[in-house]
Amino acid sequence: MPRSVNSVAKRARRKKVLKQAKGYFGRRKNVWTVAKNAVDKAMLYAYRDRKAKKRNFRSLWIVRINAAARMNGMSYSQFMGKLKTGGIGLNRKVLADLAMNHPEAFQAIVEKVK
């Protein structure tokens, strides 16, 4: 029995990868073997960095809250501890936004927890 190959599906797979490699430099954009490796690596980086992005933003928020809390005579850990015991349920993202864009509102929160 002759060997059966599915050229249509094979071509579709390759077209999909080459379309994802659009904009890459040199042979990475138009040579199948090079483009496949480049796209695979890019997908790994994208997956990894979606997780890293969350960590980076959390640390940025903590730095901003710490700076604003210290300007109001408190450390970050004291401030977050007193927020917890005071029953104020604001997350770090909101607190960092208040600290940056509405310092008077942040100061009011600090006065409330003191």
TrEMBL record:
<dbReference type="InterPro" id="IPR005813">
    <property type="entry name" value="Ribosomal_bL20"/>
</dbReference>
<keyword id="KW-0689">Ribosomal protein</keyword>
<keyword id="KW-0699">rRNA-binding</keyword>
<dbReference type="GO" id="GO:0005840">
    <property type="term" value="C:ribosome"/>
</dbReference>
<keyword id="KW-0694">RNA-binding</keyword>
<comment type="similarity">
    <text>Belongs to the bacterial ribosomal protein bL20 family.</text>
</comment>
<dbReference type="Pfam" id="PF00453">
    <property type="entry name" value="Ribosomal_L20"/>
</dbReference>
<dbReference type="InterPro" id="IPR049946">
    <property type="entry name" value="RIBOSOMAL_L20_CS"/>
</dbReference>
<protein>
    <recommendedName>
        <fullName>Large ribosomal subunit protein bL20</fullName>
    </recommendedName>
</protein>
<dbReference type="InterPro" id="IPR035566">
    <property type="entry name" value="Ribosomal_protein_bL20_C"/>
</dbReference>
<comment type="function">
    <text>Binds directly to 23S ribosomal RNA and is necessary for the in vitro assembly process of the 50S ribosomal subunit. It is not involved in the protein synthesizing functions of that subunit.</text>
</comment>
<keyword id="KW-0687">Ribonucleoprotein</keyword>
